[in-house]
């Protein structure tokens, strides 16, 4: 019965996709990190992420840095099956045509996997499907929905479930009435449906539901609309710049929640008191809790080494959830590749992934890649656990809001049952 309830949410929550994470810095397309062969020719893998893009679009050089740091450490451990790993980066520039070209490049260059992909538009998966190449650790926000439906895709970064959990997080923080703010565009509207379902699950129907043109620059009227409706909290379905603008306009009298990784600690620090009631909701504990998680300690160690070697994008100030997700994709690759008895190819890796159960990568509950999520349109999301982190102005870092781990599927089932 529970699975039927979850599946019944299809009309409200599928066909999702929104890029919320943005930062600056330039990058190049199609660059390659070479590694010398040991025990045979290098094994090639690819990461896809936009870099050097204009303001307003996703720009993820720090994600590429995280994959690169993980590959460097993997090679120091002996690579895969005694062979070194060569990383290729393809810049999709937030463009569907470029993304499709990245997929074809992966095929042409004979990569065995695409790891840590961040693609707003989608379009990479069709080429991977035709060649039997898996995508490991995609962010899952592609506009075409392919990352969450393709049998070649393995997603554990469930920022979409973060939006479902945000109303519950805000309610438990004491909010009596919760609004939402999103862009008035199709992709944003789809994600906003998840927020509405989350409001129902929390027993706090979303009001007001504010939709804005992407070009909005004055957020004072938005703050006034929240106050007029009596909302003391708001879920933000918006990228960093607009989220910051609203928080500065509405101030500390309102509590805020966005998906994990949407706002950097640098931005939160710059806002002063306006950020004191900010929460993020997503799959990973914050970096401030690294002493409790060996995987976060390893992430920091490998990123420190990359920064020391000259990669400025691996710096502490640039590390966030999308970086952790990208780094973890290489850990998944390594763990699964160990179980392959023959040659490591795209097809052998894909076959092994599709029979992998109880995969433990530490920061999320053990995953079973043989059991798709029972919601059409979200089948390839293999982790639906959500944590809440809160901004601590005194220490200028995100810290765990509590030890509670929410289950996004359960919240959706509760929304359906109310």
UniProtKB/TrEMBL annotation:
Gene3D superfamilies: 3.40.50.2300. It comes from the Bacteria. Residues 42-371 form the Leucine-binding protein domain. Residues 1-24 form the signal peptide. The keyword Signal applies. Keywords: Signal. Pfam families: Peripla_BP_6. PANTHER family: BLR6548 PROTEIN. Belongs to the leucine-binding protein family. This is Leucine-, isoleucine-, valine-, threonine-, and alanine-binding protein. It comes from Rhodococcus wratislaviensis.
């Amino acid at each position: 019965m529970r699975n039927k309830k979850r599946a019944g949410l299809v009309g409200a929550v599928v066909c999702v996709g929104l890029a919320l994470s943005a930062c600056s810095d330039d990058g190049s397309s199609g660059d390659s990190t070479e590694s010398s062969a040991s025990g045979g020719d290098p094994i090639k893998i690819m990461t896809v992420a936009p870099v050097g893009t204009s303001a307003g679009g996703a720009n993820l050089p720090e994600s590429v840095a995280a994959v690169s740091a993980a590959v460097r450490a993997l090679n120091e451990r002996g690579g895969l099956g005694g062979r070194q790993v060569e990383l290729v980066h393809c810049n999709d520039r937030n463009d569907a045509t470029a993304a499709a070209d990245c997929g074809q490049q992966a095929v042409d260059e004979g990569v065995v996997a695409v790891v840590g992909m961040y693609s707003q538009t989608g379009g990479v998966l069709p080429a991977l499907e035709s060649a039997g190449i898996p995508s490991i650790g995609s962010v899952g926000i592609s506009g075409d929905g392919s990352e969450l439906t393709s049998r070649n895709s393995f997603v554990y970064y469930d920022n979409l479930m973060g939006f479902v959990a945000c109303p519950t997080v805000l309610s438990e923080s004491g909010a009596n009435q919760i609004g939402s703010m999103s862009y008035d565009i199709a992709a944003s509207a789809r994600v906003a449906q998840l927020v509405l379902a989350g409001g129902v699950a929390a027993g706090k129907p979303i009001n007001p539901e504010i939709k804005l043109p992407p070009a909005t620059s004055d957020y004072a009227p938005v703050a006034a609309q929240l106050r007029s409706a009596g909302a003391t909290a708001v879920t933000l379905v918006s990228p960093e710049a607009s989220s910051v603008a609203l928080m500065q306009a509405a101030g500390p009298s309102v509590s805020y929640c966005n998906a994990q990784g949407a706002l950097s600690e640098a931005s939160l620090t710059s806002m002063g008191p306006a950020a004191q009631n900010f929460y993020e909701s997503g799959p990973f504990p914050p970096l401030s809790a690294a002493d409790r998680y060996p995987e976060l300690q390893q992430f920091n160690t490998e990123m420190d080494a990359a920064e020391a070697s000259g990669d400025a994008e691996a710096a502490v100030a640039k590390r966030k959830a999308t970086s952790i997700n990208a780094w973890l994709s290489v850990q998944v690759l390594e763990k699964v590749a160990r179980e392959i008895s023959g040659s490591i190819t795209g097809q052998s890796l894909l076959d092994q992934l599709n029979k992998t159960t109880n995969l433990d990568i530490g920061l999320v509950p053990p995953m079973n890649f043989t059991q798709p999520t029972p919601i059409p349109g979200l089948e390839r999301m293999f982790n639906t656990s959500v944590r809440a982190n809160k901004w601590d102005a005194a220490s200028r870092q995100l810290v765990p809001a509590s030890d509670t781990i929410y289950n996004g599927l359960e919240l959706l089932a509760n929304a359906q049952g109310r």
